[in-house]
Amino acid sequence: MLGLTAALSPRTTVALAVLSYSFCSGSLVLVNKLILHHLPYPSLVITIQLWATLLFIQVADAFHFIDVDPVRWRCVKPYLAYTVAFSLGVYCNMKSLSLSNVETVIVFRALAPLFVSVLDAVFLGREWPSARSWWALGMIALGAYGYALTDVQFQTQGAMAYWWPTLYLVVISFEMAYGKKIITGVDLRTRSGPVMYTNMLGWPPMLGFAYMGGEYGRLWDQLEKSHDEDASSLLPPVGIVLLLLGCVVGTGIGYTGWWCRSKVSAASYTLIGVMNKCLTVLVNLIIWDQHAPLEGLMSLCLCLFGGVLYKQAPMKKTKNPEDLEVDLEGSEPLVRGTKKNNNNSRHGQ
Predict the structure, then answer these.
(1) CB atoms within 10 A of CB 16
(2) Cβ partners under 8 Å of residue 99, min gap 6
(3) Which residue spans within 163-226 are E strands per DSSP?
(4) Does residue 82 contact residue 210 with C-beta atoms inside 8 Å?
């Protein structure tokens, strides 16, 4: 992958990273929703997907298909905080999907760029968003509020209907900003490095979440029920097939996600994750019966339109800028490639 992308222009590399991440991200939301319909164990499902990615890395490394960074404690420490946020974010996302519809998760995710833009400016060396971008982010927030007014679950359950999506919003905002910070600050040689550390540190907390959520007991009850009924399979075959598919897509999003994150700002990366959900909504309307009313979908479209108007904020002007990035609007790199900058760029990948 590194050899292939090295031959591409910076703009093409950014576009390829964004498109590949968008495809995997949009697909994984739908696949996980279908998995939970057959296997309602969100933490255990995510754990298996994390194990599958680690297995892929180890097998591919053993056969010399990919290069993998060795495990070092100095690299583990910065990823611990990220891993906690990552694990909690994944769990909140899966709980939200299991208790509400896909649109609810998407709208709350649509609010994240508003928070991450502030973190970008305060902690990550970005300029504050332009007036156009603030308007775009305001449209996203307005669309989210409009959706909340039409959501049946909010009308019947009140604010408690949004407990998990709200927690997901807070956690993912921190995760997006901190993820950008460590990918430029931790010296990893390969793109498999961030994927390996994230998955390696992420599965133990997920097993803890499974215990707290009573998933082990529910799974045991399902296995006993299937055994007593002399079922041909202890678990739904469709669920098993979907789980395997989720493992493949989950591995893909691990690699494409970190690749895309290394190419754009934290706020833009967050916004990309929102925009690619447009395909998710369209497919959801076709195959799922648990979708939002027309007014809610119009509010969702307003969120997505705001995302189209958003423009990535440039880096603050400094005498010795360290980040080499390509503006999503198609501008030239902020800094002409020097030997130092090129090395940092490879480490980020």
Answers:
(1) 17
(2) 164
(3) none
(4) no
What amino acid is encoded at 276 in this protein?
N
Confidence category of residue 329, pLDDT binned at 50, 70, 90: very low
Q: How far apart are CA 310 and CA 65, in angstroms?
A: 39
CB 180 within 8 A of CB 34: no
CA dihedral 62, 65, 71, 74 (to 10 degrees): 170
For the full predicted model, state whether its pTM sits above 0.85: no
Maximum pairwise Cα distance, the chain: 72
Looking at residue 236, the DSSP 8-state letter turns out to be -
49-86 b/e (C-beta count within 10 Å ≥ 16 → b): bbebbbebbeeeeeeeebebbeeeeebeebbeebbbbb
* Residue 56 pLDDT level (bands cut at 50, 70, 90): very high
Whole-angstrom CA distances from 5 to 2, 172, 264 are: 5, 28, 16
SS3 144: helix
